[in-house]
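Retro notes (design track)

What went well: tokenization of the new backbones is finally stable.
What didn't: we kept losing track of which sequence belonged to which structure.
Fix going forward: every design gets posted as structure first, then sequence, in one message. First example under the new rule, 369 residues:
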């Protein structure tokens, strides 16, 4: 689900022109207005420096998300919000980097990735603080830190358990709807297996190139690799019935990505989008009938949300129309609301936005009624 800003700088003028042409074709094919899909839109976060990736527990009483808050740590930490009383608590250790939280559907557990066990975690925090104080400008980019492991903790953040404990980037994890499985992304084989000369050179140039989708039992056992490419496969989420996984696959040059789905054993891999742009961050609607995702088809820095049917047989439909970044969408478990990350703020920092979702209009626009 990461490195969208890094990818911005890699997209050249020809891709931009291609995007404008594709956008024109979309506008002529589909006349649905973005305002038809999301109403009562509001910003959920504002006190934090930046916020992103909010996910709900099945009963809609809790929401986990990542935020940059504390001055002593310039990196994201994981927070849990009680949606009944509005109280927020930090559940990650507070040291190092964190990302990709998820709330267990049945138990009081939070899933996230962290580098807090990195011996140099505090030194890296200090270095980043000093860099910012110096005024050095740097585009936001994900670094695929090899010390990222996947952890679970209780709702107090007091019982933290390492589920992967393997050198390499282990992140982007989510529990299955029954809480028995975890899908995640990892480049661990670059650290644990003998690579070919071609793969070793590719990994040295781009650590994300060997990231694949994996699945494991909820206790970290029985790890299986599901994708077999030398491009970045990441951001896996389970379908509402737990039978399939949706994810995004980057192209070899890292400039484009498309949405894919597969069975949870890795079989029947299907390409859902064919936009030839940067399409990523897919998420199923609870109905299981369509997928929402983000794409920059309207300009390399203008990411918008689209929906597409689960078989990829219909033309994707645009559901946001604000300049800037709109991505990382997630439906509430009842399917009635949408929460996503956007930089449509005066500071141009990522924050959470929320709105009422028109499911019937979505079905109609995709001819799924």
């Amino acid at each position: 689900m990461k490195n969208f800003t890094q990818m911005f700088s890699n997209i050249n003028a020809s891709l931009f022109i291609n995007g404008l042409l594709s956008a024109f074709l979309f506008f002529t094919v589909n006349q649905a207005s973005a305002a038809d899909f999301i109403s009562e839109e509001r910003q959920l976060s504002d006190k934090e420096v930046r916020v992103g990736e909010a996910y709900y527990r099945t009963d809609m009483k809790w929401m986990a998300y990542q935020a940059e808050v504390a001055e002593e740590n310039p990196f994201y930490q994981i927070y849990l919000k009680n949606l009944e009383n509005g109280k927020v608590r930090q559940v990650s250790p507070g040291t190092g980097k964190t990302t990709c939280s998820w709330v267990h559907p049945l138990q009081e557990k939070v899933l996230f990735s962290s580098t807090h066990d990195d011996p140099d975690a505090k030194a890296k925090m200090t270095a980043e603080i000093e860099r910012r104080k110096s005024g050095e400008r740097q585009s936001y980019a994900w670094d695929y830190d090899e010390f990222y492991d996947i952890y679970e903790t209780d709702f107090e953040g007091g019982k933290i358990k390492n589920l992967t404990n393997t050198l390499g980037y282990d992140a982007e994890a989510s529990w299955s709807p029954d809480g028995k499985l975890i899908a995640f992304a990892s480049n661990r084989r670059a650290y644990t297996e003998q690579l070919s000369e071609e793969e070793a050179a590719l990994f040295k140039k781009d650590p994300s190139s060997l990231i694949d989708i994996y699945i494991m039992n909820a206790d970290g056992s029985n790890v299986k690799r599901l994708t077999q490419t030398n491009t970045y496969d990441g951001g896996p989420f389970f379908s509402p019935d737990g039978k399939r996984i949706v994810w995004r696959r980057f192209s070899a040059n890292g400039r484009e990505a498309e949405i894919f789905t597969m069975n949870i054993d890795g079989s029947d891999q299907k390409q859902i989008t064919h936009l030839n742009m940067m399409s990523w961050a897919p998420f199923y609607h609870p109905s299981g009938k369509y997928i929402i995702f983000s794409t920059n088809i309207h300009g390399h820095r203008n990411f918008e949300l689209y929906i597409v049917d689960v078989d990829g047989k219909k033309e994707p439909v645009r559901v946001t129309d604000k300049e800037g970044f709109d991505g990382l969408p997630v439906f509430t478990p009842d399917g009635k609301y949408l929460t996503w990350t956007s930089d449509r703020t005066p500071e141009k920092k990522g924050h959470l936005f929320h709105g009422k979702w028109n499911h019937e209009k979505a079905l109609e626009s995709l001819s799924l009624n």
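Added context from the reviewer: Residues 13-29 form the longest helix (17 residues).
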